[in-house]
């Protein structure tokens, strides 16, 4: 019992700096491994099965993205409310929220998966398949739709385990999923020489192995995650959905970012422009997940401190996180400016046209990282304290509203440079709105923001 009490109150007694590092390092390492897994998976499929198979997987990938978005929507929404309750020492409500969230994500994924499976043919063609790509897209999608609930439950549970004071186990689960997915798919493709459907099964199996790692958390005495009998609670459901919505929107925004840049670059620079963006997008996905790991690190801390009304700890956490994000952004800017050519060269030998576009575009685009990390941190902060409107604005503006407006207007004035500037400018403008919001509300006693926050 003594050990359980110590674990329960660790965030009450541990310094803010120690707590931040304890969550930051596992979160960032876990996300980096996931990013590497995405890149390696694509490389293996493309090299072994060819470009048509890779295109088929790309057409079916929105199903995977949807499941990621749903797991984060319910996972982060539920885990935030869970940590609020833990901070307020209301263990019964915390466990009710956990049970409710896991039930929702399991049932919702299963229902959506079965429904989409029934109508999979029009869905596949609606996503852009043709006679060549249909067999690959269909084979992959069938497996993901029927067994995707394994992945969503694993992803959502990892968020809860992190919020229950076990970020290291959450990291180990991410690493288990990423590395096992690479190994399994290598065996499937290069040893057994199987097809796309088996690759999808490999991903599900890797997620199941990650889930098994997470389930060991329930064997620990300090575990607060308990399943309870629940009754229908409309208010709780709405709370979880509303708080988690910015995370769902962020995943949708990634698709908007990719589609808008592909269309603009294809129109301006043709195939070379799209190829250059593909190279940059691989690099961006790694850095983006790193910043996401930074946001994931502060979410349990801010949520717990907010629930326990520990305002000073909350302010110190956000201050450290903003400083860390700014430092990371400056470091990335300097590294990419100096090493853009060799970084692009990692992805292969390309024509001079593609290489020049990728290098020049990368050097402009990387300016976004000066602001992006801070925006991620502040979005997570507002989401964690229940200020959903501001969190939603940050996500929608940086990935959709402002970015789309800029990418529609600026390239007409300055050409391809306007495409590369769309994200840096939108990120900078969003940060300005955050500062304005802070200045307007910093003096309000009812607003959780204070001068020390930024």
Summary keywords:
0% strand, disordered C terminus, mainly alpha, transmembrane, 454 residues, cell membrane, single chain, Multidrug export protein MepA, globular
Instruction: Name the structural class.
Output: mainly alpha
Inertia-based shape = globular
Distance between the termini: 39 Å
Regions with little confidence, pLDDT below 50 for 5+ residues: 1-9, 450-454
Share in β-strands: under 5%
Number of E strands? 0
Portion of residues within helices:
over 70%
Structure, described:
This is Multidrug export protein MepA. It is found in: Cell membrane. InterPro entries: MATE_fam, MATE_MepA-like, MATE_MepA_subfamily, MdtK-like. It holds the Pfam family MatE. The chain is mainly alpha-helical. It folds into two domains: 1-231, no CATH class; 245-454, no CATH class. It has helices at residues 2-8, 10-13, 16-49, 51-87, 91-118, 120-126, 134-163, 167-191, 196-215, 234-307, 311-345, 352-365, 369-384, 388-414, 416-441. Helix 5 (91-118) packs antiparallel against helix 7, helix 6 crosses helix 7 (134-163) and helix 10 (234-307) crosses helix 12 (352-365). The radius of gyration is 22 Å and the shape is globular. It starts with a helix and ends in a 13-residue tail after the last helix.
